[in-house]
Amino acid sequence: MPQTKTQLTFTVGLPTYYGAPAIVATAKSIRASVGVGEFRLIVTVDGKPLQPEIQEQLAALDAEIIFNPIRGGQTTRIKQLIQLCETDILILTQDDVLFEPTTVAELLKTFSDQPAITMIGARIKPIPAEKRFERIIEMGVRLNYVIGRRWNGGDNYLLAIGRCLAFRSQFVKRCSIPDEIINSDAYLYFENKRRGGKFICAEHAVVFNKSQQKLKEYVKQSRRFKNSFNELGKYLPNIKNEYVFPKSLAVYQLFRELLGHPLLTGGYLGLRFYVRFAPSGAVVKREKRYWDTDVSTKR
């Protein structure tokens, strides 16, 4: 079990809109963290009241629940959590992930061992798939991780995934974050870098999430990240080179997947083709400041 050199104080922040029973499982996994002592767990609810039984279960886990009657979107709730944080470290997560017991300790140890680090991304792994569609998506997650690890020594936006990001709170409080940002994950990575911060992906800090089980949800999310460059370019100039990764990395890993999993690789390539050329009616239309919440990952 990892131990920190100095006892860093930390807060875990969890914004939610859908508030499904999965959020209770997320909170339980966070509270089951070992080797970290006491900490504050804050749930910010974005415009849709939690069901009474969900609220009771979260309260039993000593979660502070802050209800916001007007929906502002995930970025607005993240900014709220940054403002509320009074500890050394802020860990931001989502309402459909599961923490390994040592994940938080690994994050704190990384901050303690490397004082220059201001932002950490956890290692994201899919919950073992039950359906072929999920296994195809799992392959995409592996591709993303391998490319991210080998590109620029792991310092890139591909590994800054919002399912679990940790920050030195005093540093992130200085960051400027527009409410209109949709892809807050990548924005926070680039804003951290712009202000002279250092990022790392902590390989041994693992959180699990369920892959989408509906094509519509997968297409929606994929289009969201595809449009990220255009969105972020409005706020962060000169980020074009940050999106140019060596294509040989993708080709190499695809070839390895093809040798080991030819059917899944074919399915993944077909899925990517569909995402690129599917008619716009296949995707839920974008709404300002937030996207419709995935449901299948929160069951």
Outline:
With 299 residues, the protein is α/β, with parallel strands linked by helices. It has helices at residues 22-31, 52-60, 74-84, 103-113, 132-150, 169-172, 184-194, 215-226, 228-233, 247-260, 262-277, and strands spanning 10-16, 40-46, 63-68, 89-93, 97-99, 117-126, 164-168, 198-209.
Describe the structure.
The chain is 41% helix and 18% strand. Residues 281-287 have low confidence and may be disordered. With 299 residues, it is an alpha/beta fold. The longest helix has 19 residues, at 132-150. The chain has a single domain (10-280), classed as Spore Coat Polysaccharide Biosynthesis Protein SpsA, Chain A (Alpha-Beta Complex), CATH 3.90.550.10. The relative contact order is 0.16. It has an 8-stranded mixed β-sheet with strand order 3-2-1-4-7-6-8-5. It is globular, with a radius of gyration of 19 Å. Helix 2 (52-60) links the parallel strand 2 and strand 3. It contains 11 helices and 8 strands.
Shape: globular
Average of pLDDT: 88
Q: CA-to-CA gap between the ends? A: 30 Å
Number of domains: 1
Query: What's the count of strands?
Result: 8
CATH architecture: Alpha-Beta Complex
Radius of gyration: 19 Å
Helix content: 40-55%
CATH topology: Spore Coat Polysaccharide Biosynthesis Protein SpsA, Chain A
- The CATH homologous superfamily is termed Spore Coat Polysaccharide Biosynthesis Protein SpsA, Chain A
Uncertain parts: 281-287
Question: How would you summarize the topology of this molecule?
Answer:
Elements: E1 10-16, H1 22-31, E2 40-46, H2 52-60, E3 63-68, H3 74-84, E4 89-93, E5 97-99, H4 103-113, E6 117-126, H5 132-150, E7 164-168, H6 169-172, H7 184-194, E8 198-209, H8 215-226, H9 228-233, H10 247-260, H11 262-277
Parallel strand pairs: 1-2, 1-4, 2-3, 6-8
Antiparallel strand pairs: 4-7, 5-8, 6-7
Helix pairs in contact: 5-10, 5-11, 10-11
